[in-house]
Amino acid sequence: MTGERVQAFHSAFAIESWLAQNAVLSAANRHSLAETVSRLVTRTDTDRKTTIGISGAPGSGKSTLSRTFVHCLNELGITACLLSLDDYYLDRPGRERMAQDVHPLFRQRGVPGTHEIRRLKRDHDRIRAGEIEGLQLPVFDKSKDNRMPASQWKSLESAPQIIVIEGWCIGAAPQETSELDHPANDMERLRDTGGTWRRAVSKAWKHMYSDLDSRLDQVWYIRVPDWDCVVDWRWRQEQDLPQKNLQSRLEVMHFLACFERIVRHMQNSSSEWADLVLETDREHNVRLPDH
Predict the structure, then answer these.
(1) Distance between CA 19 and CA 3 in Å, rounded?
(2) Which of 8-12, 99-103, 205-209, 287-291 shows the lowest per-residue confidence on average (mean pLDDT)?
(3) For residues 58 and 237, which has the higher predicted lDDT (pLDDT)?
(4) What is the structure's pLDDT at 35?
(5) How confident is the model over 181-237, as pLDDT tens digits?
(6) How far is CA 212 from CA 116, 122, 205, 216, 269, in A?
(7) Model-wide pTM > 0.85
(8) How many Cβ atoms sit within 10 Å of the Cβ of residue 161?
(9) Which of 29, 221, 222, 229 could form a disulfide linkage to 25, CB 3.0–4.6 angstroms apart?
(10) Measured distance CA(235)–CA(251) in Å, rounded
(11) Which segments within 35-182 are labelled E, that is strand?
């Protein structure tokens, strides 16, 4: 092996060992993820402040990849931090107000419009400017479907060089308005008959895109094989939660129906807006493209 290949091998081996202690993954998943993250680190410009957006369908593995990437950078002495879009969900009272004022479907967390993007922008900008003293980053508890008390929020010990923002719809350019005319699935057909909800989601998504696009130096997207994989993987994730909110695969299907339109659009358009598209197979092994 050349020196570079030896270094990459040892980096991947160290990542794989860390994953064995910190993630519920198969041996094959750990191996593919470790090799992928090792390659991502070597191709990342760490000499300047950089913000990377990582997106992918629910259950695609973006959170684990993001967490592993940030861990690896920190281990190499490159300060990095992770901001998760999931931690910026509106709390229950906020979503209840949207459900009453706009459409009942906004009671469920997930789609654009159910996040505090203004807070995310503010937190990111303070971190990028190095103004971290007194900064408290929110934490959302999915098992309780609500934000954790402020006493359990996170802080940063030092200003990072690399910021990762991960979220299922980060970085993608929204659909055209004309594409909203027809329902994407039975849920939209039955519960959004006039299209009020999907148009409100699209408007919020456009604001999210314009607010975050200028802040992202790179966008990485994890593309999945098909929609059935999204349902299966999200069900597996739910089973790992301390307290399951969704008790069956059917309930997961109903929960994910709100995501389906955007996921399918992102899958079909990722080559137009993502700087890097990673592929994951049906067994959840992720890889970088060869070229």
Answers:
(1) 24
(2) 8-12
(3) 58
(4) 93
(5) 999 999 999 999 999 999 999 999 999 999 999 999 999 999 999 999 999 988 887
(6) 12, 11, 10, 6, 18
(7) yes
(8) 17
(9) 29
(10) 9
(11) 50-56, 80-84, 140-141, 146-147, 162-166
Q: Residues 165, 124: contact at Cβ < 8 Å?
A: yes
Cα separations (Å) of 61 from 271, 279, 283? 19, 11, 11
Helix (H, G, I), strand (E, B) or coil at 59: coil
For residue 50, the SS3 value is strand
Coil vs helix vs strand at 186: helix
- So what's the pLDDT on residue 291? 59
Report the first-to-last Cα separation within the chain, whole angstroms.
Answer: 21
pLDDT in tens, 87-101: 999 999 999 999 999
* 153-184 per-position pLDDT tens digit: 999 999 999 999 999 999 999 999 999 999 99
Question: Considering Cα of 206, then 207, then 210, then 216, what sign does the dihedral take?
Answer: negative
Identify any residues that bridge with 287 across adjacent strands, giving them in sequence order: 279
Write down the residue that tokens 């129906």 correspond to.
257
Confirm if 98 and 105 have CB atoms less than 8 A apart.
no
Q: Phi/psi of residue 59, each to 5°?
A: 85, 0
- Give the bridge partners for 73, in sequence order: none
- pLDDT, mean of residues 116-133: 97
Q: Which two tokens stand for residue 152?
A: 């359990």
Q: Which CATH number fits domain 3-287: 3.90.550.10, 3.30.930.10, 3.40.50.300, 3.40.50.1100?
A: 3.40.50.300
Give the neighbor-by-neighbor strand order of the sheet with 218-223: 80-84, 162-166, 50-56, 218-223, 276-280, 286-287
